[in-house]
Amino acid sequence: MRNAISASRPQRAEGTPAAARWLAAALAADPPRAKSLIVTVWGDALAPHGGALWLRELIALMAAFGIGERSVRTSVYRLAADGWLRGETRGRERRYRLTRSGQRAFADAYRRIYFPHVEDWDGEWQLVVAPPDSLTARERVTLRNAFEWSGFGAWAPGVFIRPRGAHGDDIAASRAIRRRLTVLAARDDPRADAAPLASFAAQAWDLRGLAAAWRAYLARFGRGIDHFRGDGDRAPSARQCFVARTLLIHAFRRVLLRDPLLPPALLPLDWPGAAAYALTRDFYRLVYRPADTYLAAVLGADFSAASGEFHDRFDGLD
Known about the structure:
Layout: H1 2-6, H2 17-29, H3 34-46, E1 52-54, H4 55-63, H5 69-81, E2 85-90, E3 93-98, H6 100-114, E4 125-129, H7 137-149, E5 153-156, E6 159-163, H8 175-178, E7 182-186, H9 201-204, H10 207-225, H11 238-256, H12 273-299
Antiparallel strand pairs: 1-3, 2-3, 4-6, 4-7, 5-6
């Protein structure tokens, strides 16, 4: 904890007007939903520092975003009902931490958010075929949502495709559903006078819409990063840095959930995803230490030294 806090530059409690204006504009332009933002705060800030806190401490953290106590209580109740959090009562207070399934979900997202993505690809594809009558309508929706997270595109009705290797080979479906699927490994046949699978990338994935989302992200946070570089005694406050870091990861995570992380060979030459990762890395490195200072002040004894993995984020925070 000492390393994470003592290295921070002394800051004025109120921060800078420029950072305050940018944060206010960012929150007004895209107000985050309380439940989703709590998930971001838990994964980005709380999990590396012990992962447990009192409800009153979470209420204090969320107040920095203009989210009231009632919304926090309702969101935490729903996250617990959904199996993300478990709570225990001590006296008149309530304390929460991640469940085991919540920890697994966070671990699955961890490398995707904070680490550069493997770009090597040998041209092999993974195809999954779901015969028309093999799944119920509800199972198809569940499968499609799970496949979107793990990089599959819908190539044709009941046929899903992804480059092999970027997301591993596991099929994100229950055992009962997997038994009704056919999984194939495929390559283009150079002897055939036919369109390569790569030519269907724009059909299988909404690359145009995703590129627009990444460019909007770059414009929004590209305007903000300069307000957090600091200038002598005009550095942003620890609270401002905590809000900026959270909004940064929250917005990055939302677009990244839609990104199939295709290898460069399948993407347009001007693809903005790499620039978005670089901006996120640079912005995060600017604000993570003072943000941890604020977190430590709010959590007190609940704040513990960050895990070693925390400092490996974004190619190494130090």
